[in-house]
Amino acid sequence: MTKLFVISGSSGVGKGTVIKGFLEKHPDFKLSISCTTRTKRMGEENGVNYFFLSQEEFENCIKNDEFLEWAEFSGNRYGTKKEYVQKCLSKGENLILEIDTKGALNVKKIMPEAILIFIAPPSFEELEARLRGRHTETEEAIQKRLASIKLEIENSQYFDRKVINDTVENAIQQLEKIML
Ligand code: 5GP
What we know:
The protein has 180 residues and is α/β, with parallel strands linked by helices. The protein has helices at 15-25, 55-63, 82-90, 101-110, 124-133, 139-155, 168-179, and strands spanning 4-9, 29-31, 34-36, 50-52, 67-73, 76-81, 94-98, 115-120, 161-164. A five-stranded parallel beta sheet has the order 2-7-1-8-9, with helices on both faces.
């Protein structure tokens, strides 16, 4: 049976690495591609990591009710297209949405069968260190992200499952127990 999984976690928690590791072991799962208005980071490609949209293009998608959910996060907008998710699920794909907690809770309202998984850091201090260690963002951007972490942890109480990312291997094993 096809399943929809929604995975959220605070920025810098390493959820990208955990999900990548899971997908390498389980190629029958597919990571959903979201739309965003944020600028591309080095190495990112349009249609691979995200569909990179202008503000105007994103606005039009909202007006036309094309998003299953969307959220503003750190001054940028992110959204999951309804049509994209429906196409994947109707093809029989097991789909993973890697989105923020607010978006995840919105998906659950519309698709209650979705399983929400929160990837948590072992500690807040470790999370801050990881975020700074990435060296991809300005201090202002880091401060914004740290502020949003509180809200994410608050929202995670409504999630179906929690995975502690102490080591990547452990986290992948915990995901396997939930998802397979
Ligand atoms: P980043 O800019 O680091 O790629 O992503 C920032 C945040 O946006 C992450 O928490 C990520 O999970 C979230 N995000 C990515 N795509 C979507 C989406 O389609 N919808 C929502 N609500 N959040 C998303």
